[in-house]
Amino acid sequence: MAQDLKIVLIDLPVEKLPGFHHFLSSWLIIDESSSRTILIDVGPVSSVPVLVQSIEAVGVSKLDFILLTHVHLDHSGGLGHLLKKFESAKVLAHPKGKKHLLNPKRLWESSVEVLGDVALAYGRPIPAEEGSFLPGEASLEGIKKIETPGHASHHYSFLYEAESNLLFVGEAAGTYYKRGFAYPGPDNGTFILRPATPLKFYLQSALSSIRKLKSLKADVLCYAHFGYTTEVLKFLD
């Protein structure tokens, strides 16, 4: 990676959910060449203090943009709270999901119904302000937003074009983590890769999205859950 581009994977543990270390994450991009700092996904409400602490620990005091892959609680729930800390940040979200960020009542109620105690541990989101959002048609230089439905109808993936092209896929390419994080010992170094299938999952849309991701020829595949791989085509296959 170029010296003027720093990528930080931020672990977002949930205190009330043992075992949720190395499961939820945000990605922080510090790009000195374009003088911008970008956060991809914000995690749930309960992890916002850890997120803020991690951002400040690498010397960042201002976020220019927040990109959301989708608006499920574990990816966007903390947005309203985070914007109170980083008020000047502009948010890029899918138009289908934006309404749930402006008024998260329905998102919260359905999440509690489906996830139960997990949703309660994530915490209840507060509304974000309309003025914090970029227009739906907005584009950012050097960043391609790609419609990747399947896991959610309002799902974006983002290709960050740099010396090595970085592809942030949210959950469009499933859930991935090294077993060694949770199960130290002889299994360390092996991996789990599974589809991310919420209550409503659209298989054909998900497969179409994966084919679209393969065509981008990315160098690094960055997951929301959890980590990254340079074997992009292998893992998308």
Structure description:
- The protein has 237 residues and is of the alpha/beta class.
- It is built from 9 helices and 12 strands.
- It has helices spanning 48-57, 73-76, 79-85, 95-102, 105-115, 117-122, 179-182, 203-214, 232-236; strands at 5-11, 25-31, 36-40, 65-67, 90-92, 143-147, 156-160, 166-168, 175-178, 191-194, 220-223, 227-229.
- The strands form 3 sheets. The chain has a 5-stranded mixed sheet, covered by helices on one side.
- The radius of gyration is 17 Å and the shape is globular.
Quick recap of the structure?
By secondary structure, the chain is an alpha/beta fold. It contains nine helices and twelve strands.
For this entry, give a set of tags:
237 residues, alpha/beta, 5-stranded mixed sheet, 28% helix
Give the helices and strands, then pairings.
Elements: E1 5-11, E2 25-31, E3 36-40, H1 48-57, E4 65-67, H2 73-76, H3 79-85, E5 90-92, H4 95-102, H5 105-115, H6 117-122, E6 143-147, E7 156-160, E8 166-168, E9 175-178, H7 179-182, E10 191-194, H8 203-214, E11 220-223, E12 227-229, H9 232-236
Parallel strand pairs: 3-4, 4-5, 8-11
Antiparallel strand pairs: 1-2, 2-3, 6-7, 7-8, 9-10, 11-12
